[in-house]
Amino acid sequence: MNPSSTIVGENVARDSSALTDSRLAARCAEIALQAFLEYQTRFHAITQRARERFLARDWPGSFDDAAERLHFYNDVLDSLTNRIRQLMGVRLPERNIWTGIKAVYSSLIAVSPAWEIAETFFNSLTRRVFATAGVDQAIEFIDTDFDAPPTSAPINITKTYRGQSLAELLYSALTEVFDETCWDDLPKTAELASARIEAARPPKNPQLELEVVTSVFYRGRGAYLIGRVLREGEPPLPIAACLRHEDERGIVFDALLRGDVDLAILFSFTRSYFRVVVECPYRLVRYLQQLMPRKRLIDLYNAIGFHRHGKTEFYRDFIAHLRKSSDRF
Questions:
Q1: What's the pTM?
Q2: What rounded mean pLDDT belongs to the chain?
Q3: Which of 74, 270, 276, 302 could form a disulfide with 217 if both were Cys (CB 3.0 to 4.6 A apart)?
Q4: Residue 177 sits in which domain range?
Q5: Which of these ranges, 91-95, 154-158, 191-195, 322-326, has the smallest mean pLDDT?
Q6: Are residues 62 and 166 in the same domain?
Q7: 137 CB neighbour count, 10 Å cutoff
Q8: Is the dihedral of CA 279, 283, 203, 294 positive or negative?
Q9: Which candidate, 178, 188, 119, places its Cα nearest to that of 149?
């Protein structure tokens, strides 16, 4: 161990010994929030590089990014756990202080659009400190602290196109995410996609809307535009436009997936995680669930890279089942 780090740790512990339990809890909660924001910043930075990698056809860099995003969570938690251990010193195992830390932390994340991810992040911290056998509602977010999303500000995750033919709407949506110069024959791409959608469900009503997620989903060498076609009097048709960029000619249309079954395969748990820029995972996941109603929240959180929160949702589903079930084990 580095002697200087030992001295710093001793000084921190000595300084924190003068803090009351409530002040110590508040300080620890602030440090935990700072660590979560660091994690969030790094997660978004890596995710945002997916577009650059796709346009540059930098596939090795893309796979490196995917691996980095998967593993750095532990680095952030290691650093946070060490800071908390040093700050709390001999009071580290005192659960009454941790109850206070959780309460303060909960109030701090109430303004975050990724509040549910922040809850799971805190659970990771307490698990490292206590190596908990079983669960403890007092110091973990077993159930969420919020009955409804705590953020009230509108966050739009989709954009709706209307007033034109389907091919024209697709053209508008595709040029919104990639400039026209990036494409290899974009008009043909839009026509092909339109024809495949119409083949899946011949229109009874010519008036339609195209609703798409504003962020592109990247995975491997592919980019995916996710959304649905809306016609009055007809059920929505979920779609995914699958794009490739294999050479200097530009982006090409690879496939058009139609219906919830096709999309469910794309979002299968056997696939690697998507990189998609998302401000509010809660809203994106629930929109995706509208497109794929048979998909569980755990599957969808996993699919967009929040696999640790996927475990949280799995446990909550399990507990909810037990509360209603008469099963015997």
A1: 0.88
A2: 88
A3: 276
A4: 158-324
A5: 322-326
A6: no
A7: 10
A8: positive
A9: 119
